[in-house]
Specification:
Length: 445
Amino acid sequence: MKNEKLSPWICTTLTLLVLLATAPSNVQAAAAPPAGFTALLVGDGLAGWRGGDTFDHRKLLALPPEERAAQIAKWTETMKAHWTVAQDELINDGQGAYATTEKDFGDFELLLDYKTVAKADSGIYLRGCPQVQIWDSTEQAKFSLGANKGSGGLWNNSPGAPGKDPLVLADKPFGEWNAVRILMVGARVSVWLNGQLVVDHATLENYYDRKAPVPAKGPIQLQTHGGEIRWRNIFIREIGADEANKILASHDGEGFKSVFNGRDFAGWGGPVAEYEVVDGAMRCRPKKGGTIYTTDEYADFAARLEFKLPSGGNNGLAIRYPGHDNAAYDGMTEIQVLDDNYEKATGQQIDPRQAHGSVYGMVAAARGYQRPIGEWNFEQVTVKGATIKVELNGTVILDADVSKVDMANVMAHSAHPGKDRTSGFFGFAGHNDPVAFRNILIKKF
């Protein structure tokens, strides 16, 4: 076969085809969710999203159904007028209600990318609470508000509170995509912006009521605030109890020492025969009880532990216990360990100051932060002087100064002769139910 030359037109056409095949595309295909994640933006519509605003999610849920539906419909109408989906990007023109997930989330890991413009101001609401801040870090007019410190901080936290300002300036120049990763367990939030840690396990404050913790569940909201912003690759992964407990245990653990070996009751006193060790956990025997306690005494301390309740289960943490009599009255107090659904499980009503985490009979704790029956809960109790703080599954449910309790109005007007004790033992006050405890650690201050 003899060689034949290709015509110049054919050569040019082939060259163009090769260049087109190898040139990078300006249209990026939608990324697949990482393993374990679910995409919150699917297809070219707004399925799974509704409108929302800066509005207390608890109050929204408390509205009568018809009123709640009407409010959501109103927000959704203005949201859809200003939000569009194109080429796998969720685009907002700077106006309208916020894009809000129809689903509420508890503990989660959220991934997303955003790209915005000069002088824009936006944010990511977590469980309906503002917010992980997004803004123009070069806008001098907002330097007094902290814009020069960059995006990613929990801007609505109180001044000086952990997490309010990002740890580093990690924003990319305008025109480039920023990658955000958010980990939320209880009220504890960590944020990475473009691969850099900007918030480290800080508590997100409840913007709507600083005295109450953030809701246990709520929606993700993408805020709009005066400038175009684009979002893509919005993926979420819900976190289970075991992983959540490991995350909580991995932070701020310096100085904690184990007081339970997982095998027997070495280092413990009191009626230990009323308890048993099962699968590395100490558990009150059914129909048994009494207060068992560490043989070491503590003044100011923090105790970390995991506990698991049966339905209707009842126990308590003995704080500065004298080693005899009733922990709730003769010790500084008993921090209640009780099924959050105790009334439903048993048919018995309780005083709010008997609910889980409460300073028994004196100060009520916030409810609704326990894991379902059969799952392990993570709790830390910090005792300093007359103050007691209880953090359950990453959320502070009680922060009280017992020296300020009005003793004339305590439950049943009962005397608490041990309330002002400055030291004592730590223990468990069993009440006939097989409540289990494990990974028990204490740190002295």
